[in-house]
Amino acid sequence: MSVPSGESSPASQVSPASGSPPHSSRSVARSAGTIGLATMTSRILGLVREQVMAYLFGAGNVVDAFNVAYRIPNLVRDLFAEGAMSAAFVPTFTRYLTRDGKTAALRLGSHVINGLLVVTLVIVVAGIVFAEPLVWLFAGDYAKVPGKFEMTVTMTRVMLPFLTLVALAAACMGMLNALDRYLVPALAPAMFNVGSILVTVLGVPLLMWLGWPVLYALPVGVVAGGVAQLVVQWPSLRREGYRYEAVLDPREPGLRRVLLLMGPGTLGLAATQINVFVNTWLATGEGTGAVSWLTYSFRLMYLPLGIFGVSIATASLPGIARRAAEQDTVGLRDTVSSSIAMMLTLNVPATVGLMVLAEPIVALLFERGAFTARDTAATAGALMAYAVGLTGYSVVKIASPTFYALGQSRTPVMVSVLSVLVNAGLNLLLVREYGYRGLAFGTSLTALLNAGLLLLLLRRQLGRLDARHLVSVLFRVSLASAAMGVAAWWLAQQLLVWLPGMALPLQILRVGAAIVAAIVVLAVGLNLLKVREFTDVVGALGARVRRMRG
């Protein structure tokens, strides 16, 4: 059976139990555990990359320029790798696997790769030609600082080829995920970070020796990381039987479906990234450092979002796509509900933890070299504001792709457009009173609104989403998280008295002890409150550890 293509509710199209394996919370937990461990590796390496940049360049004009220049390809990376590619390609690829077999699905992969190659190369060339007006559009205030605007334009031109590399890497990631191969695509972003770190660390002294501007190490590192992210996935695809074909037929039904879904899919999943881009534009007028503080803080918020949010969404999407293709509404509803419940179980505590320990975490990770105590305080303030929306960001990554799996592309698009408009209005108001912190807080409120509207509309589409259980999970997890937050805050304050000083070992000890205490209190609380999803996660992790030992 095909995915419903109209806007009618599939609630009336329930089929008998399908032949596909059940996508229960435990199976999602197992897959999400694999993705989460790989993503954690990537995010940690991403933090190392940010630490290298903070140590070498601090939060001044060079990093401000780099962050604006990087925002364009990074926006496309987030949309393709964790958004529109998954939302459009994975359901279509899965449909071909289910209906036409693996050979047809892999041939569709070649069509999509070639289509992306053509489209992104055109964008890259246009971006290089029109880089100056593009940068002026988003960071015109940089022209007030001598050399800053020109530096941003140059970096933008150097990094634009990253668009093509990340689009191809995302296509590989989508095929591997649809084939239930999660580890390698989840590790691919880690290779991006490795490439970026190596080129930056080795490039700075080399450029100094050559007498060239050291700032070019940053954009060249991004391109090198993009190459690594693509290359690392190719052997796994070949083992699955994929062989590249130079085919590109616009009449191919699967390609047309992917491209048609990717247009609204990109917009529907774009709310967070467009909102961050709006923040960057507004922050350019908040003085030197504001763009960097927002970027560093958003990267830190993305650590739990990637480990918990993206991993659960990635693990659940193939099951959601299968259920939609088979018109199994009951199974689809159960998969979505269990995935959201697991998301709440992990992300609510992460929100509290980031807010309570924001300043010591930022100081531990970044405060050295050119990154000052003032930068720490400013970044921590933005991090607390961004953390408010963590659960909203994560829920969107499940809810929005579900609509695309159902062929209901208009709904998330309309919600996304509304979210962008609300975010722009909120941030224009909040930036006047609270500066760059208001930008982060406005984005968080908008993410929560986006998630709430999508869940409400998804409930109308699928029928009930086991709302009673979801509310119960949210309430119990919130209680346990509150206790965790109090314990972490109290211990962090006491350790400052017992172990004063800013030496790195002392910082590691203080932050590490507070995090361990928080995890212990959270685990006890969730067990006492009988949160089933927490037991599923612990069981999945335990099984993986046992397999690794065996």
Series of secondary-structure elements, N-terminal to C-terminal? HHHHHHHHHHHHHHHHHHHHH
Task: Please bin the fraction of helical residues.
Answer: over 70%
Distance between the termini: 41 Å
The count of DSSP E runs of length 2 or more, i.e. the number of strands, is 0
Mean pLDDT: 84
Radius of gyration: 23 Å
Domains (count): 1
* Bulk shape: globular
- Number of helical regions: 21
Strand content: under 5%
How would you classify the helix and strand content by structural class?
mainly alpha
| Biggest sheet descriptor | none
Low-confidence stretches: 1-23
Entry summary:
The chain has 21 helices and no strands. It is an all-alpha fold. Helix 2 runs parallel beside helix 5, helix 11 (271-283) runs antiparallel to helix 18 (436-462) and helix 12 (290-325) runs antiparallel to helix 13 (329-356).
SSE map:
Layout: H1 25-57, H2 61-99, H3 102-129, H4 131-139, H5 148-159, H6 162-178, H7 183-210, H8 217-231, H9 234-239, H10 253-268, H11 271-283, H12 290-325, H13 329-356, H14 358-366, H15 373-387, H16 390-405, H17 410-434, H18 436-462, H19 467-498, H20 504-528, H21 532-549
Helix pairs in contact: 1-7, 1-12, 1-21, 2-3, 2-5, 2-6, 2-10, 2-11, 2-12, 2-16, 3-6, 3-10, 4-5, 5-8, 6-7, 6-8, 7-8, 10-17, 11-17, 11-18, 12-13, 12-15, 12-16, 13-15, 13-16, 13-19, 14-15, 14-20, 15-18, 16-18, 17-18, 19-20
